[in-house]
Design brief:
single chain, alpha+beta, 34% strand, globular
């Protein structure tokens, strides 16, 4: 089963939830939750899972739990499939 690994930049405390894919592969994830007690990380995982159409258990933060720049793994999708789905996503 494929495993995608994508680098993202999280933006906790934003006014709205959204995902922007810039310059082809720069993924910015905006969540309204603040970076307190892991709430923003949970929101990032949930938003990515919704946008990709996969269960939250298939999305995990593998590096950068306490930072804005994170490495995220998506079980069951290739990196290319993940980026295509994120570019096409309208999930807010």
């Amino acid at each position: 089963m494929p495993l995608a690994r994508i680098a993202i930049q999280a933006h906790p405390g934003s006014k709205e939830r959204r995902i922007d894919v810039r310059d082809g592969e720069a993924v910015h994830v905006f969540v309204t939750e603040r970076a307190e007690g892991g709430k923003a990380n949970e929101a990032v995982v949930a938003l990515l899972a919704d946008a990709l159409g996969v269960a939250k258990t298939r999305v995990s933060i593998t590096r950068g739990h306490g930072a804005r720049r994170k490495l995220v793994a998506v079980d069951g999708l290739s990196t290319e499939q993940t980026l295509v789905k994120l570019k096409q996503s309208t999930v807010r």
